Amino acid sequence: MSQGKDKKPHIGIFGKRNLGKSSLINRLSGQDIAIVSEIAGTTTDPVKKSMEISGIGAVVLIDTAGIDDTGKLGLERIKKSMRIISQIDFAILLISNNSIGEYEKNLIERFAKNEVPYLVLHNKSDIHPLSSTFKKETETILNTTVFPFSCINNDDVQELVLQIRKHIPETAYQNNSLIGDLIQEGDTVLLVTPIDDEAPEGRLILPQVQVIRDLLDNDGIAVVLKERELDSYLHKMSPEPALVITDSQVFLKVDGSVPAHIPMTSFSIVLARQKGNFNKYIEGTKQLGKLKENDKILLLESCSHHVSCDDIGRVKIPRWLDQFSGKRLNYTIVSGLDDIPGKITDYAIVIQCGGCVITNKQVKNRIKPAIDAGVAVSNYGMTIAYIQGIFSRAILPFTSNSIHSTDYL
Q1: Is the peptide bond preceding residue 194 cis, with omega within 30 degrees of 0?
Q2: How many angstroms separate the CA atoms of 116 and 89, rounded?
Q3: What pLDDT is stored for residue 190 in this prediction?
């Protein structure tokens, strides 16, 4: 699972080999998506399956390899399973036979480090009933509840669904409105959407679609046009738009055309407020004005797509940064949720894309190592606005007080 292509809440199922993880995911989803076998180590790579949970909606279940796998290949399987932890919103840990050891305790430590809430299921309780003494001692050690469970017991399955619904954070499946707090019912929002080589054939890019849907949900009016039609439309548009949102690539054009009293921002910055760490992005973006010769820049591009000759993350941002800084800079670009090469402290700044195809938790955990290490973080839209000299205006719709551009230069 090197790429996060699903914004649904992600639930990981963990435990030792042959404890019934695959049977559990099949039972929950109602499909034989995961291979079940009495041979330990049957599950190799994480397996994903979407299902609906009442009260939550669609979720993604992830079946992982056993945490006690052995051998060189087994260690690679464990590594992939451990990587999943930073990408999930909730975890289910399976134990059995009234036993818990270092494997499970290490896993729980990783849950805590990544702020992942979890449940502990004592599986196969129809074969080895959960001891009241073991339950009490384990709950004291782990500071959580241990539930007896059997895949053949319908009541246990229903109880598990209830417990998932009770313990999974609401933030995993209830996203805040993108711009609902910025507009009033009936307000018009002007969306500037260039149709260039990077625009997908026959459709809009996902952030544009998300903003349009959010506008409709909040009883706003969306007007969508290309940058070439902006000037003529603004001249005759009445009433004026309450807000203008543009693709970051035409920031300067839109900034020059839209009167200063009309709020303006970009799709990427709108997403940055919903996902990641908006305040850290604002704080970290000013590092762009302090770059030194041979500094390393990490660009995190969460979606995978065909790279055009003028790709925003791989071509345009590096080119604009070189011109802005006047320095020789080194760029590392990582797609999806692949591992980051080297130490995070090797980089002067980490620049994250809007994250439209991954979950809020995945974006936060993607930039968390940088924040924890004191490395500056920014966002594609904020970076472009900063190096083009319109950062203050681009973030102003989301800040209570005006921020002067001199604070960031």
Answers
A1: no
A2: 6
A3: 97
Q: Is 222 a member of any domain?
A: yes
Whether residues 258 and 285 share a domain: the answer is no
Q: Is 190 helix (H, G, I), strand (E, B) or coil?
A: strand
CA distance 61 to 51: 8
- 114 Cβ neighbours under 8 A, 6+ residues apart: 85, 86, 365
Tokens standing for residue 25: 């995911």
Domain of 80, CATH number, reads 3.40.50.300
Same domain, 22 and 154: yes
User: By C-alpha distance, which of 160, 137, 136 is closest to 61?
Assistant: 160
Total structural domains within the chain: 3
Q: Of 123, 146, 172, which closes a domain?
A: 172
Residues 256 and 288 grouped into a single domain:
no
Percent of the chain residues topping a pLDDT of 70: 88
Q: Quick one: 140 and 244 in the same domain?
A: no
Output the CA torsion sign for 148, 81, 52, 353.
positive
- 334 in Cβ contact with 366 (< 8 Å): no
How many angstroms from the chain centroid is the CA of residue 404? 30
Q: Are residues 368 and 398 in the same domain?
A: yes
pLDDT in tens, 161-187: 888 888 888 777 766 789 999 999 999
Domain that holds residue 296: 277-408
Residue pair 86/94 in contact by the 8 Å Cβ criterion: no
51 found inside a domain = yes
* Distance from C-alpha of 397 to C-alpha of 38, rounded to nearest angstrom: 58
Query: Chain centroid to CA 249: how far?
Result: 22
Tell whether 180 is covered by a domain: no
Distance CA 85, CA 89 (A): 8
Q: Give the pairing type, strands 90-95 and 10-15.
A: parallel
Neighbour-count burial for 160-178, b at 16+ CB within 10 Å, e otherwise? bbebbeeebeeebbeeeeb
Mean pLDDT of 263-280: 93
Q: Between these two residues, 211 and 75, which has the higher pLDDT value? A: 211
Question: Do the Cβ atoms of 381 and 395 come closer than 8 Å?
Answer: no
